[in-house]
Amino acid sequence: NAGVTQTPKFRVLKTGQSMTLLCAQDMNHEYMYWYRQDPGMGLRLIHYSVGEGTTAKGEVPDGYNVSRLKKQNFLLGLESAAPSQTSVYFCASQTTEQETQYFGPGTRLLVL
Amino acid sequence: GQNIDQPTEMTATEGAIVQINCTYQTSGFNGLFWYQQHAGEAPTFLSYNVLDGLEEKGRFSSFLSRSKGYSYLLLKELQMKDSASYLCAAMDSNYQLIWGAGTKLIIKP
Fold it and tell me: What gap in Å lies between CA A8 and CA A85, rounded to an integer?
C-alpha cells in the first residue's frame, strides 16, 4: 500500500503558467481533499470530493479547479499561476466524513 | 466565525512532560483531531476525541471539554524525535476540519 501519493514533489512556475497537481490513493477512500499550507496559518481547504465524479468548493477555491474522474485520483489545476499561490499543497483522503484524514507528502510550489 | 487557537511555539526538555492547549469555536462540533507534522513532511494522525474526557495512547494523551471548547495534547517522557509541529483541528457541523496554525514544539537535551 502506497497510501496517498502526490506528483510532482516540487515545481517552479512563472506567473501566468498553468499546471496540474496529481493526487492518487490506493485505500479505496471515498473522500478526497486539497489543502494549502502557508507559514503561520492553518491548513486551508481548497476543494474536496465526496466521491467519483463529484467536487465542491472549500474555503479558498479561487484560482483553482479540480476533477475526480476516477475514484483513486484527484487533480488540482492552476489555470494561470500567481505569486500568491506559492505554497505547499497537501492532498488527503478518508473513508467517510468523520474518519481520520490521511495525507500525501505534499507538493512545494513556487510561483515567480 | 470559526476559529482555532493554539500557542505558536513551546520548548520542553527531553524526558519531561508538555501540555499543548487548543481552544476552538466552530459551527457545530463533530470531534477534535490532533496531528503531528515534522518539518517538511505530511501531517500524521495522533488522536480523535468526540466525547468529554481523556484518551490515552502510549506516551500521548488527549483531553476534550466540549462545554469549554477546549482540548489539550499531553506528551510524556519527551524524546528528541517529538520535535515537530502539533496541529489541532475541529470538525464542524458539515464535517469540515477547521485547522489551527500549529504549535511548534522544540525539545532540548
Answer: 16
